[in-house]
Amino acid sequence: MSAADVPSTTDFAALARDIKHWARELGFANTGISGVDLDEDEQHLQRWLDEGHHGEMDYMARHGSKRTRPAELEPGTQRVISVRMDYIPPGTANAWEVLGDAQAGYVSRYALGRDYHKLMRSRLQKLAERIQGVVGDFGYRAYVDSAPVMEKALARNAGLGWIGKHTVLINRRAGSYFFLGELYTDLPLPVDPPASAHCGTCTRCIDVCPTQAILGPYQLDAKRCISYLTIELKGSIPEDLRAPMGNRIFGCDDCQLVCPWNKFAQETSEPDFAPRHSLDGAKLVELFAWTEQEFLKRTEGMAIRRTGYEGWLRNIAVALGNAPRSTEVVEALNARADHPSPVVREHVAWALARQRG
Q1: Cα 64 from Cα 70, distance rounded (Å)
Q2: Does residue 15 have a known ligand-binding role?
Q3: Residue pair 156/69 in contact by the 8 Å Cβ criterion
Q4: Where does tRNA bind (predicted)?
Q5: Strands 79-86 and 178-185
Q6: This prediction's pTM
């Protein structure tokens, strides 16, 4: 399929307006259109990789320039349609209250419900089909965190927000609690103006980070980030970072929780993002008791699956080690002291030592 098949009489400005309208009908909060020039972002990414801040995320370097040159990833790409979707459901337990309850497990708010990847990709496919119904065959490909895509840079260039000092995209009318998705296309659509930055002199995100993973404005050392430690890292968590993790068992939201712009955050209308199994504030001891079969069943279709059962137990063991000393916690840890996984055993032993003082 190619834009060469699109009628020469097509009004692309009108089509761009229609695309944004159709995207909103499909549940996307905002839509913007950008070109494919990411030269400055390519240089920033390369410096980040050269400094080794990506840790074990080898895939960040594996694809070479395809990440920063959309036309190399999808030949013929001229424009990128970026969309965002809010994810905080109404009635979700207050994040600060859960973080303040050392007996509860904190799960990043984005991961409490259904995994967003398939949901958003399906909606993007419907958007493409809607465009196709008007212009005929054209070249496109939908992405939702599923390929080497510079989603934040593209969204910034499309006017959806600016990249904050914590490296998360911020929208001045909606904060940062949203997912991003892209539709690469060969249609010569008019582009939107890029978003300007509005962090000013604020450093709250840098100051609050439990593990000091934000080395400075726009400089994230993923190896210290709790989201990386609890999800991407597959082995042992460095001992000096375990206590600062507190009760965070899957991801971390602290840098977003303190961001002043999140006073404008919008609740989602997507029912699939509602918390499952009370994971917005469940007790650590209860979660630690899940068998592998229970873990697989209860996290089916959820982003939490990414950490794996071994990683789930490892993360909870650290949180239990950071919990107030109690017989209940010690008994729960002892029940996993002989776990087949050496990684789980190591973190259980550390937690027991913490509990015993």
Answers
A1: 12
A2: no
A3: no
A4: 234
A5: antiparallel
A6: 0.95
Q: Is 127 annotated as a binding residue?
A: no
Averages of pLDDT over each 10 residues, the chain, 357 residues: 70 97 98 97 95 91 91 97 96 97 98 95 98 96 94 98 98 98 98 98 98 97 98 97 98 98 96 96 98 97 96 98 98 98 98 95
Position 32: which residue type?
Answer: G
Chain centroid to CA 134: 33
Q: Is 2 marked within a binding site?
A: no
Residue of 11, 41, 137, 145 marked active site:
145
SS3 345: helix
Q: What share of the chain is helix, strand, coil (3-state, %, to 5)?
A: 45, 15, 40
Task: State how far the alpha carbon of 110 is from the alpha carbons of 31, 175, 214, 310, 322, in Å.
Answer: 20, 14, 20, 21, 24
The alpha helices in 12-167, defined as continuous H runs, are: 12-25, 39-50, 59-62, 70-73, 95-99, 116-135, 151-157
Q: Which of 180, 129, 118, 119 is nearest to 154 (CA)?
A: 180
Q: Which helix (H) or strand (E) segment is 180 a member of?
A: strand 178-185
